[in-house]
Automatic annotation (TrEMBL):
This is Sperm-associated antigen 16 protein. It comes from the Eukaryota. GO terms for biological process: axoneme assembly. Interacts with SPAG6 and STK36. It comes from Neomonachus schauinslandi (Hawaiian monk seal). SUPFAM superfamilies: WD40 repeat-like. Residues 278-300 are annotated as: Disordered.
Length: 628
């Protein structure tokens, strides 16, 4: 009879579980299990056995009943004792010994390994050969032993390692996802941050634009006021012109009527006029002819009086060309900026307000708030001459074109002319109502112009010793005045934030320049005269094209005020004396700004030497500093 050639998978799993739990028991059980699971071919003869051949053991049927007399007392006592014993046992806490883990035998280990790896065919072959050897008695289960703990631990560790690797993989995936979310969040944060910065920049730009518009709007008010004043002045001039025209028409008609009367009967009218008494002539109504004759007579008298005053100077009509034009073309050397503090001259007890260079010699003149001006020789700084005469501080001074005279302006409302050969005051101009800030000579030497705190400027005739013209138009203090080189044009800078260009012959304002937001402290021409530089009370320096009367550039060197500006002889370097004590040198070619640090207090004035090798500055400490 043939046995089964294969074992079902379910039977194998049941067998493996049985092997894992019961093979460590007694050897008889192991042999029985091994005998059960061995399959081989064997010829067996089965005979039927009769029931008569089996011998049964008879059991005696004894009576185990308890007698009635002993049943009550003995049984009750025994039951009570057993119950008490059971209660004591239940009340005691019995600690059961822990079951020691049974080590896995080798064959179970191998079968479990093959099942885990899915090697079913190898498992079938192993079980067939293994149990065949056991059936034949070649191998004993007891002699094989168990799998060492280290292998079991290794398997457990491997399983734990696999689980940990799975967890690590999940954690890595979670970390990668978190990293992606973090990068996305960071990008969103950077985007929002950039967007916020851009919005802040736009807000600041809008604020600055708004401030600029407000300042621009504020600058329109004085412009409108000046234009309104000019409009009123033009209306007055128009009215006066119309009155003069009517007067001229009346004079012409009167003269024509007079000529007609003279042709008809001149003698009669003349005798008739002579006979009229003076009282009647005064009370008699004046006709158009008499009125025209009287006005013409008065006009001729005025002309005669003006012609009789031969001391008045005439403004030159044929001006010589500016000599600085040729000097600037010849001066092709590099501009100098590396000035170093060379010497300090203490010339005044109070602040120095002005320094000017002699037009031909190495001499400079300083003015101070101690009411003195001093003529100083260079390079030693020795005082050659000291001028006394003003009763208040000196604000400015200017050399005569020949260099032998000096004009000074003062807070005592006067302008004085000095003869430098004697050191005496030769002329004093009085007419301003407040302090005089600045003065300048005409290139012909016959006129001096001055600007004052009373919002006016005046042109003085040196020969006739009187004011020839007063310039009206500024609405605040006129802080600076200067003649254009070799011309009859004047430039004024005012605290009303405007520059004005005047015709000295007529006293009319030809043009006004707007752009400064603060009071203008000083303005000057380049030596060639093609450009204007101005500085204001907040340190802003502006350059203007004088030919086009348009601004070129604006440079903010504030917030300290700019007190004075001056060009060097080449016109390529502009120096500014600042309220912070710093001398700023502006390179007009490159736009760079160089600083000279040396003043301990406010710097009021600055001027270059003729060759540009030296720079002189005056401060509020009464000293003059030499830079070379």
């Amino acid at each position: 009879m043939a046995a089964k050639q294969g074992i079902p998978a379910s039977a194998l799993r049941v067998l493996e579980e049985a092997l894992g739990m019961d093979l460590t028991a007694a050897g008889d059980t192991a042999e029985a299990v091994a005998a059960e699971d061995a399959y081989y071919l064997e010829q067996v003869t089965i005979t039927e056995a009769s029931e008569d051949d089996y011998e049964y053991e008879e059991i005696s049927d004894d009576n185990f009943s308890i007698p009635e007399g002993e049943e009550d007392l003995a049984k009750a006592i025994q039951m009570v004792q057993e119950q008490a014993t059971d209660i004591q046992i239940l009340e005691q806490k019995t600690v059961l010994p822990s079951k020691q883990p049974t080590p896995e035998v080798i064959e179970d280990f191998l079968c479990n390994f093959l099942i885990k790896m899915g090697m079913t065919r190898t498992l079938d072959c192993f079980q067939s050969e293994w149990y065949e050897l056991i059936q034949k008695g070649v191998t004993e289960l007891r002699d094989i032993g168990n799998v060492p703990d280290v292998y079991t631990q290794n398997m457990l560790l491997e399983n734990e390692n696999k689980n940990l690797k799975k967890d690590l993989k999940h954690y890595k995936q979670a970390a990668d996802k978190a990293r992606e979310d973090l990068l996305k969040t960071q990008k969103e944060r950077d985007f929002h941050r950039m967007h916020h910065k851009r919005i802040v920049q736009e807000k600041n730009k809008l604020i600055n634009d708004l401030k600029g518009l407000k300042l621009h709007y504020a600058s329109y008010e004085p412009t409108i006021r000046v234009l309104h004043e000019k409009h009123q002045a033009l209306l007055k001039q128009k009215m006066l012109t119309s009155l003069e025209r009517d007067r001229a028409v009346g004079q012409i008609s009167g003269l024509q009527a007079t000529l007609k009367h003279m042709e008809i009967g001149h003698n009669y009218h003349a005798s008739e006029i002579r006979v009229v008494p003076n009282s009647e002539k005064e009370n008699a109504p004046e006709g158009p002819t008499q009125k025209g004759l009287r006005e013409a007579r008065e006009k001729n008298k005025c002309k005669t009086k003006i012609k009789a005053n031969t001391k008045d100077s005439e403004f030159p009509t044929d001006m010589q060309p500016n000599p600085n034009l040729y000097l600037c073309k010849e001066n092709i050397g590099p501009a100098k900026f590396d000035y170093k503090l060379n010497n300090i001259f203490r010339l005044h007890e109070l602040p120095v307000s002005c320094i000017i260079m002699h037009p031909r010699k190495d001499i400079l003149v300083t003015c101070g708030e101690d009411r003195l001006w001093k003529l100083v020789g260079l390079p030693k700084g020795n005082v050659l001459l000291t001028g006394f005469g003003h009763t208040d501080w000196l604000s400015n001074c200017c050399f005569h074109p020949s260099g032998n005279k000096l004009a000074t302006s003062s807070g005592d409302t006067t302008v004085k002319l000095w003869d430098l050969s004697k050191g005496d005051c030769i002329l004093t101009f009085e007419g301003h109502n407040h302090a005089v800030w600045s003065c300048t000579w005409h290139s012909c030497g016959d006129f001096v112009a001055s600007s004052s705190l009373d919002t006016t400027s005046k042109i003085w005739d040196v020969n006739s010793e009187r004011c020839r013209c007063t310039l009206y138009g500024h609405t605040d203090s006129v802080n600076s005045i200067e003649f254009f080189p070799c011309s009859n044009t004047l430039l004024t800078g005012s605290a009303d934030k405007t520059l004005s260009v005047w015709d000295a012959r007529t006293g009319n304002c030809e043009q006004s320049l707007y752009g400064h937001m603060h009071s203008i402290n000083d303005a000057t021409f380049t030596p060639r005269g093609h450009m204007i530089a101005s500085c204001d009370a907040c340190g802003v320096t502006k350059l203007w094209d004088f030919r086009k009367l348009l601004p070129i550039v604006s440079i903010d060197i504030g917030p300290s005020p700019g007190n004075e500006v001056n060009f060097d002889s080449s016109g390529r370097v502009l120096a500014q004396a600042s309220g912070s004590g710093v001398i700023h040198l502006l390179d007009l070619k490159s736009g760079q700004i160089h600083k000279l640090m040396g003043h301990e207090s406010e710097a009021h004035t600055v001027v270059f030497s003729h060759d540009g090798e030296y720079l002189f500055s005056g401060g509020s400490d009464g000293t003059v500093r030499t830079w070379s």
